[in-house]
Every structure is written in structure tokens, then in C-alpha cells.
From TrEMBL, chains A, B, C, D:
Gene Ontology molecular-function annotations: GTP binding; GTP cyclohydrolase IIa activity
Alphabetized Pfam families for the sequence: GCH_III
Repeat recorded as keyword: no
Coiled coil feature spans: none
Leader peptide range in chain numbering: none
Keyword line: GTP-binding, Hydrolase, Nucleotide-binding
Protein function: Catalyzes the formation of 2-amino-5-formylamino-6-ribofuranosylamino-4(3H)-pyrimidinone ribonucleotide monophosphate and inorganic phosphate from GTP. Also has an independent pyrophosphate phosphohydrolase activity.
Organism this protein belongs to: Natrinema soli
EC number: 3.5.4.29
Keyword Hydrolase: yes
Protein name: GTP cyclohydrolase III
Family statement drawn from the similarity comment of this UniProt entry: Belongs to the archaeal-type GTP cyclohydrolase family.
Gene3D superfamilies cross-referenced by the UniProt entry: 3.30.70.270, Nucleotide cyclase
Catalytic activities: GTP + 3 H2O = 2-amino-5-formylamino-6-(5-phospho-D-ribosylamino)pyrimidin-4(3H)-one + 2 phosphate + 2 H(+)
Length: 256, 256, 256, 256
């Protein structure tokens, strides 16, 4: 049984800040956002977690292994180094979607994302170390079959991007509504999906669905672990098996 | 008439590097990619351009105001500070899509994105200073009407993301195939679109199309300028007018 | 009794890299070095340690609270994101100077700093958690009395810098040879000193020595803790007392 | 005749900020300072200038090639991305020390470094493009002869640092008072010196002085150029000649 710990990271009152007193230079906003994400990714990643940039002003992280004290330290450190501050909602559960809903609700209860009086909230609970197990996190790492040969080296860069984006958009909706999973584009042609306890047949169904719906062929490696890093690292190895053997679905715990 | 200068920024042989000799830690890849993007965004942004992260291993920039010497310096500076190197294709034209196609073709002609012998290519031409005009770039800045009230403060963070992503996916395809434009999600609920010489009716058609197709209400401010920054800055101001007045399309040159 | 854990961080074969095949742009080297330091400072700082930039190619850190696994993770993460790699020597002891000597020797035994075959060494031992105590680290935080009023707002910026640098150079040598301590300039007019078990009289002697030798008036706050952060944070509070009360030496454990 | 353009970069009201409302975590301050420096170094470096971290809260840059508009853009960009803001004083002259004095005075006239009402000042003048010449900047790049063999691989890392620091401290004072030059430690065993129109005999005298005063052997390459980068790049090449040929002073314009 999975027990995913999910953190919603929300920049406090960000929209208004970007246009006060005048709209700020777009290149500066892009730089600031992506460095903020990078710093959070390092902090969480050094403790075994994964952070996804999502909308940048709202990031989603899998934080099994991070205590509430760790979350508070992250908040303090960002507050010391950036012109914006973070609110964090943390929740856990067998369903990643449900955990994220709970985490979101905790922040929404504390105030609007554009409430200037809601600052640096930290709400929720983390899994105590004694309760963590090697099945807590299930990660699926998808990519597009032969994306470089079929797209990058053939189409113009934007049409390639449309193809990959279309595959992602379909996969994200399908994994959300059919399988209770959270899918994130992570660059190139890669999508990382945070899953509940899914099985081989679920992944076969998902890749078949995307191929039929938008004609994008995907392959997927899946791993389990105590943390996102452990699960995701196994998923990467499983995906390497797909690439080497030409298979479409590999579950690390079946092949290992 | 627009004359957009587009640069395709491609990390050399990146896919293979990420799994050699073993898959690298995902958090490190995410950190490295987003900081690389941030640095390019600063460099280009300091010269009036816009950079979009796109797929991270393939980024697209509007570089009116950057000479080929500037491009070479960017390449050198990144090569000195990162474990990866960049190839750059540059092209210009009245159609942003055609300019990007030309830029892409120049890199494809130089070798595959995964050819380990193709390193730090710089191909193409920039617009000479004497030929630059105040109409060269047209930028449209879209966002979702009342995204915070309708989505962020109501749905869980992933379902909000799905809504915004769906609006983006539809807009991106429509603007590409109906209007020859390049659309990029830039965080929050914002999409920046690099356009040829479009008119009010085109933008009204586009927002109506997205509303009908996926039920996401968008508003848009549009600007023109000698550089992406100038055009984009005007677009931001026009979008502020939408927000203040409740209108759906504002062209800065009509209201100014 | 202090038990300081010291890590020597050495960039592998850095000198030759900076001029191969041609000298690299100085601004790029400066940027790369200072960001590398910043990343190490965050990683170590998030675990309660302090990192000092020292010579940049050789950095010194107080790492009580960082295991060898943490050190290995830092090494891996930097290796994934920078064009250079790190070797790390770790040692502990009641004397910070002796601990650093041991840490240095471990790296020297593994090979020259400019041996191209010595890469990513990790040598030494960390203090096991059970053996850590609240007296392990003693940190003294010095600054120059009224530096802004006496120097920054009066002299040109370089002559101010010379005054502060002169105070630092004298303090560093004196604390090293008279008190077995490691002193690091950390910006502004601040010097942080990693000390063995010193007492009030030692600090009074040190500030008197510097005042007499180079005519720079300094004040100092001192703290103790299980980690550099804890000791250093107490030292900062003690220094605030100096600033408020006009005293020259404050030991947090006497005033608390 | 040299005509050095010098910029004093001062963080506004920084000291008070670091302890308000409580002292901030030292690791965060170190990270923030060094990244701020890195960003300024990139911005100025991309336009041919050099930036020196100096005291971090007061940095000194050689900015030939940067207009006042560039300075204003740097100020705006940093203000958009950091929790602190910058004031900038700019001045030019045949003597680097005099130029820095003038730049400092302009900021001092605008208010104290700790005046909370003095924010984002930009004072002074830049050299108009038409007046720039290939002799405007003279840069000398010093390092310690065989520092790795004599120190790094032999002494503990702190004692090596003391030796190099002592060489630097002596050189900095001597070059300031005997030769009107500004010397900056830039990492490793390297010192970069911004000079007026000095000659071979001056550099021979300086290295001899340091060797006699503190027993540290240094060598130096010197270059001239329109910008710090051009002069500094020539200086690096000249220093490579010292290393290859065992000479102590090389002036690029004599050997080229």
C-alpha cells in the first residue's frame, strides 16, 4: 500500500506582486521563478523527495522523508533569500490525489492565495519515521518512444513540442481520472507520475489509451520505494530496460 | 510588418548524458535544467529578448537585439559553467513559425540532437541594427479570467493545473495552426504568444475558440515593439487594462 | 570540550582546468566559483553546518551533523550540475586546526590537488550521532566597532576595505597561532572564528592584540552548540548584546 | 593613458537587514551574498567588465563598456529578484583609486550606507562610446609561484590560506599606496589588480617588495584593453608565459 506524502508549495500573494507597482520585467520573473523552483528541488531532493514546477507559483512535491521541521527550515531559508515567501500544505494518504486535495484544503482554509495577510503558513502533518515503509511511494517514469528520431530531428522545434505536450495533456488527464495519479512534465519527452498502488495492466491500459487518443507512443518504467528518489530511481532503471529491450512497460519489482 | 528573430537553443546530446553511466538523480537534473534556463533568460532578457523553457532541452527565444556575437558569448559562458553545452540556430522572418522552422533546420542540418560529435554549433543570421523597426515583434499576453477565484482557491492544486493546462494546450494548437503563432506557458495562468501581424479580430476569435472548445475563459493584452521586452511590456499593460475594465482583448496601440 | 568536525572541500584539478585549452573568461570563473560555494553553503547549512569560501578552490566547512553519506550526496549532486568535481576530507578533534590538518592530510595522501587522476575522493570519518554533545562547537562572531560610521561613510570603498582586511589578516594569524582557531571573513566587517574551548580572557586578549597591532577596534559574541549553526546563532545574539550595550566581549552562556 | 570606469555597488541598508527582526541564518546570508555577486559578475562580465566581491555588501566593478542605462537595468533586475536592493556610484579617471573615490563620494553624498531612506541610488557618469580607446584599462594578474607544490600539497589548508592571504594583504597595500592601484583576491592564489599606466619596473618593484616583506614569491602578467575583459584576457595570456618560461613579469604588449 502506498502512503504518499504530498506538499503543496504556494508563493504568497504572487500574482499581485508581479504587477506592483508596475508590471515587472518578464525575464526577471522567469529567472526568479525557475531559481526558486531549483532551490526547492535541491532542498527536497537532498532528503529523497521530488519537486515539480507545475505552475511555478504553485508547485507540488512528494516529500516522504521530510519532517515538518524540514519544511519550516525551507520556508525560513527561502524567506531569507527571495523577495517572495512560501506557504506550505502537507498531507499524506494512499491516494496521491486525495493527499494533494487535503494539502490544498489546508492552505485554502488558511486564506486565499492572493490574501496579503496570509504569509508563510505551514499546515498539515508528516509521516513519522517509524511508519515509513519501502512501499510508500510508487513512481512511473514515462517517455515518448524514439522522440529524437521521430520528432526532434524531423519537425520544427515547436511542432515537436506540440506533439509531446499533447501526449502529456492526455496522459495527465487520463492518469488523474482513471488512476488517481499526478503526472508532471519534467523536460525533454519525460513525464513523471506519482501513483497509488497500480499494476502492470493499468500502465498497459494508459499507454494504449494515449496512443489511441493522440497517436503518441509512450513507454514506462515503474518503481517503488521509501521515498520518491528511491521509487523514481528504480523507475529510471526500468525505463532503461524498455529502451534496451523495446518493451513498453517495465515494473522494477518484477524484473529485479 | 513583424520581423521576429527566433533562436532555437538545444542542449547537445542531452538525453544520453542524463543516463550515462547511470541515470542521474532527478532532482539534480531538474535543478540544473531550470538554472540553465534562468541564466539564458537573464542573458537574453538583459538585451531585450524573451526566452521560453519549452522542453528545457530545447528552448525557444525571441532574440531581436542579440547579435551573433552575443549568441557566441552566451554559448561560451554556459560552456564555462555547466556540465553541458549548447547549440544555437537563429533565423528571422515575418512569420514566427517559419523563422523557428528555419532555425530548427539549421541545427538539424548540422547533426542530430543526439549526435555526440555535434557540439556548440552556431548557425544562422541576426537582423542588422539598421534594419530593426518598432513593429518587429508582436507579443500577446493571455491569462485566465479570475483564475484564483475560480480555480486556485476552489479546486485542488492539480485539478486547477489541469484546467489551466487544458486552456494552454488548446490555445497553443489553435494559435499555431490558425494564426502562425508560438505560445508558451510562463507560470501561474499566463501564456505569452509570439505572433505575426495579427489584429483584434484574430484575438477575439482565439479567446472565443478556447472558451468554446475547453470552457476556459481567457483575456489578452497585445503589444508591439522593437524587441520582445518592449512588445511584451506593452502587452502586460494592455492586460492590466483588461483586468481593470473587464474587457477581453486590448491592443496597446489602440488604447495608448 | 569542543569536538569540531571539519571538512576540507577541494575542487579537483581546478587550476589547470581554468586555463585549458585557453584561459577561461574571468567573469565566468567568478560566477561559477561563487555559485558552487553558495550551493555547498546551502547543503551544509541545511544540516546545521557552516561553509567558508576561503580560497574558493579550497573551502573549509564545519560539518557537525553531516554524515559521510551526506558528504557523498553533496559530491554526487555537485558532480551532476557543475563542470568540475569535488574531493572531500573529513576529520574531527578538540582542536579545529588539528582537525583541519588531519582532513587536509587525508586528501594530500590521496593525491595532489592538481593530479588529474584524483577525482571525487571522500576520505575520513564523521562523528556518530550518539557522540554529539551541546559543547561540540564554539563559534566567535567578530565585527568592527562602528565600521559604517568610521569607515564606509568616510573613506573611499577600497581604503575601507584595506582597514577591514588588515584587521582580519591580523586576527586570523593571531587566532591561529595563539589560540588554535580558524578565522574566516564572511562579508561586510564580519569575521567568524571556529574555536577550541576558549574563555573570556582569550577573547579579550585577542581584541586587545588587534587594536594594538593594526588599530582596528573589534567586538565579539561567542556561542556554543551541537552544530555550527547553533553555536553561531548564539554568537550572533551575543554580538547583538555588544552592539546594544557597548561591550566588547559577550559569551552567550554567561549572559543567557 | 588609462581611463578606468569604476562602479561602487553597495547593498542598501544591508547590515540592519541581516539582523531584523532577528539575526538571519548565516548560511542563507552567505548564499544570498555570493549569488548576488555572481549575478552582477555575469551582467557586467557579459558587457566586458569585471566585478570583484570585495566585502560583498560593497563590491567594486570595472565597467568600461557599461552605460548608465545598463547600470539602471542591473539595478532593476536585482530589485526584482532579491530581497535587497543596490545603490550604484559610477566615476572615471586616469587613476583607478581616484575614480573609486569619486564613485564612493557620490553615494556618500546621497546618504549613509545604513540610511533606510537611501534606496536604489544611481549616481555618476559613464564614458561615452566615442571616447573609449584600447588603452583605457590596464589589468595585472598576479599569482603565487608554485602555490600547489609549495603550499596546497604541503601545509594544512588554513596555513596555506594564511600564506596566500598574507601575500595578498601586502600586495594590496603596496599597490594602493605606491602605485595607485586596486587589488582583489579572486580565488586560488590569484590577485587581479586594476592599474593606472604602470610600467615593467613598477611590477618588478612590486613583486620584489612582496617577496621581501612577507616571503611570498609572485609572478604577474599584464594586459591593456578597451575593457577589463580585454585587458584581463591579455594579462592571463601573459601570465601563462610566466608559467611556461619561468619569468616573473610579462607585459602582453611587449611580447605580442
Amino acid at each position: 500500500m502506498t502512503n504518499t506524502q504530498v506538499t503543496l508549495v504556494q508563493i504568497d500573494n504572487y500574482g499581485p506582486w508581479t504587477v506592483t507597482p508596475e508590471p515587472r520585467r518578464e525575464a526577471d520573473l522567469q529567472t526568479m521563478q525557475s531559481r526558486l523552483f531549483a532551490d526547492i528541488s535541491q532542498f527536497v531532493g537532498n532528503r529523497g523527495g521530488y519537486t515539480f514546477f507545475t505552475r511555478f507559483d504553485n508547485m507540488i512535491a512528494v516529500t516522504n522523508g521530510c519532517s515538518l521541521e524540514d519544511h519550516a527550515l525551507l520556508q525560513e531559508s527561502i524567506g531569507n533569500r527571495y523577495p517572495v515567501s512560501l506557504s506550505l500544505g502537507v498531507a499524506t494518504g494512499t491516494s496521491p490525489v486525495q493527499a494533494l486535495s487535503d494539502a490544498t484544503e489546508r492552505l485554502q482554509d488558511a486564506g486565499s492565495a492572493q490574501d496579503e495577510n496570509r504569509r508563510e503558513c505551514l499546515e498539515g502533518r508528516a509521516i513519522a519515521d517509524d511508519y515509513r515503509t519501502g512501499d510508500d511511494v510508487q513512481i512511473a517514469h514515462f517517455d515518448v518512444v524514439n522522440a529524437t528520431g521521430n520528432y526532434t530531428d524531423e519537425l520544427n522545434a515547436f511542432d515537436t513540442f506540440i506533439e509531446i505536450e499533447q501526449g502529456y495533456a492526455e496522459l495527465m488527464r487520463h492518469m488523474r481520472y482513471a488512476h488517481g495519479s499526478l503526472s508532471f512534465f519534467v523536460g525533454g519527452d519525460n513525464v513523471i507520475v506519482v501513483c497509488p498502488d497500480l499494476e502492470r495492466a493499468d500502465y498497459e491500459e494508459a499507454t494504449a489509451h494515449v496512443a489511441e487518443a493522440v497517436d503518441v507512443e509512450m513507454q514506462v518504467g515503474v518503481g517503488r520505494g521509501k521515498s520518491a528518489h528511491e521509487a523514481g530511481y528504480d523507475a529510471k532503471h526500468a525505463l532503461e530496460t524498455c529502451r534496451a529491450d523495446g518493451t513498453r512497460v517495465e515494473l522494477e519489482w518484477e524484473t529485479a
